[in-house]
Design brief:
three-stranded parallel sheet, TIM Barrel, five-stranded parallel sheet, globular, binds zinc ion, 230 residues, 7 helices, alpha/beta
């Protein structure tokens, strides 16, 4: 099985030099990036930057990225919230991204890779075509699912610490051995990276360049144009 890798960058919104350094390099290498943008945290300057990227695919990442559950796996839109209100918030968020980034928004990535059954229904009703969470949080849905399998972060608290390079590459090798899917998604939170982290991540991305999905393939995949062979 010839696996392909895609890179997903979460919590995009604030203007951040490390994020920009990584996305710049991906553009130079003609490797696509999926950026999970938080509508209500998107700064104008960052929007202007993203708008110009040729190899960047924009997904909606919640609306405010605020947790609403008291215990358990974090979620911005848990089941007990009013469906009409959530639907309006997600729709407004999507319309805002469409307007400022001038791109279609057909992919949804829930904050913390988690959301409720009700929200999945809302996403389907709003016409989202692709849902990306993580491999062990798949949902029942008509949306195409492109989960991430690898998180480059070892721990998030009190601040984010990256796994060593070798650990990440081992995880990629193991995922290739055991995953049923052709696609291996790697998740990054570049706003939280230190300068040294950026260097390591760029090395990682470059070392997997040969396995990286082509922009047009990934965009087609995410637009669900030809999913029959997946
Ligand atoms: Zn997030």
């Amino acid at each position: 099985m010839n696996h392909l890798i895609f890179h997903r960058f979460d919590d995009i919104g604030p203007y951040n030099d490390n994020t920009i350094n990584i996305l710049d390099r991906l553009e130079e290498l003609c490797i696509p990036s999926i950026v999970a943008v938080i509508p209500n945290k998107l700064e104008r300057k960052m929007a202007d930057y993203i708008k110009e990227l040729k190899y960047c695919i924009v997904a909606q990442h919640g609306v405010n990225h605020l947790n609403k559950v008291n215990a358990g796996w974090l979620d911005e839109f848990p089941e007990y919230l009013d469906k009409c209100i959530i639907k309006k918030q997600i729709r407004d968020g999507r319309d805002y991204l469409k307007e400022v980034l001038q791109r279609p928004i057909t992919t949804y990535i829930p904050p913390w890779n988690n959301t409720s059954r009700q929200t999945v229904e809302i996403l389907e009703e709003l016409g989202f075509q692709v849902y990306s969470s993580q491999y062990n949080k798949l949902v029942e849905s008509t949306m195409l699912q492109v989960p991430i399998s690898i998180d480059v972060v070892k721990s998030y608290h009190p601040k984010s610490i990256l796994k060593p390079y070798d650990v990440i590459t081992n995880e990629v090798q193991n995922t290739m051995k055991y995953i049923d899917n052709y696609f291996i998604g790697i998740m990054y939170h570049p706003n939280e990276f230190l300068d040294n982290d950026v260097e390591m991540i760029l090395n990682l991305i470059e070392s997997y360049k040969a396995m990286a999905m082509e922009y047009f393939d990934l965009r087609e995949l995410l637009m669900k144009i030809d999913t029959k062979e997946i």
